[in-house]
Amino acid sequence: MLNLIEGKVWKFGDHIDTDVIIPGRYLRTFNLDDLAAHVMEGVSADFAQKVEKGDIIVADWNFGCGSSREQAPLALKHAGVSAIIAKSFARIFFRNAINIGLPVIVADIEVEEGDRIQLDLNKGEIINLNTDKIYKIQPFKKFMLEILQNGGLVPHFLKKQSLNK
User: Most CB within 10 Å of its CB: which of 25, 39, 133, 140?
Assistant: First the structure.
């Protein structure tokens, strides 16, 4: 099963839409390196240069609203974001993130940018390692954890298919 996720926090506010996550002018390419180089450019000009593998986004309401472009969660994941925690998500963004193996967690937590947090999706806990405050969240269902562990819906399906032969 998926183990702990630990990373540095990047904070964002309400209504971070897919045009802010990956501006439309960069959608002429399917190259993930190119997309990741411009991720979050619409709200944080230097995010793509400063984000590190394992970092975690914590946002307020309605993260991922706007268009249904799958490039938004793909660019975040490829840039190194290991999970996103928000008070709420646009449903299509939520589903797209799970489909590509990027954990998205609905929770209202108190953190500062730069704090280190740890997520345990099996136990349903988020720990702010700077303050030792523990937040209980709804644990992920087994099938969702399997999709995330397998790297997304397509790899999960392919794995299930090969096991059934």
Answer: 39
Q: 145-165 burial, b for 16+ CB within 10 Å, e for fewer? A: bebbbbebbeebeeeeeeeee
Instruction: In whole angstroms, give the CA distance from residue 45 to residue 81.
Output: 16
CA dist 60 and 88 (Å) reads 7
How many Cα atoms sit within 13 Å of 107 on the Cβ side? Answer: 25
Output phi, psi for 125, to 5 deg: -135, 145
Q: How far apart, in whole angstroms, are the C-alpha atoms of residue 99 and residue 103? A: 10
> 57 is in which domain, residue-wise?
5-163
CATH number at residue 137: 3.20.19.10
